[in-house]
Specification:
123 residues; 0% helix
Length: 123
């Protein structure tokens, strides 16, 4: 099992910044892609940004130029630096990770979610 522990959410005024962190722990062989998703009230969960183990990044159009995803592979931690925040960025932000683990004698891929952290941007 992999545990993803997020931190860094909170309340910020429009134009401000926040940095989210997500640390993965557990008995894993490797952690491949990691990413951040968000879900606003009444809306579907959507991808914000993701990053491969080789640090190739991908962003939603709505956050390009404002958010930066990065990771520290030695610490199994992914970060999301959020600048120029807007009220429409208000949501619960979830960390996601693809991990390979030994299971029943074979290496298998699993997907895990964090518990979510609230980000609220006031206008």
């Amino acid at each position: 099992q992999v545990q993803l522990v997020e931190s860094g959410g909170g309340l910020v005024q429009a134009g401000g910044s926040l940095r989210l962190s997500c640390a993965a722990s557990g008995n894993v062989f490797s952690i491949n892609a990691m990413g951040w998703y968000r879900q606003a009230p009444g809306k579907q969960r959507e991808l914000v940004a993701d990053i491969t183990s080789g640090t190739v990044t991908n962003y939603a159009d709505s956050v390009k130029g404002r958010f930066t995803i990065s990771r520290d592979n030695a610490k199994n931690t992914v970060y999301l630096q959020m600048n120029s925040l807007k009220p429409e960025d208000t949501a619960v932000y979830y960390c996601n990770a693809d991990a390979r683990m030994w299971s029943s004698g074979a290496l298998r891929s699993f997907n895990f979610w964090g518990q979510g952290t609230q980000v609220t941007v006031s206008s």
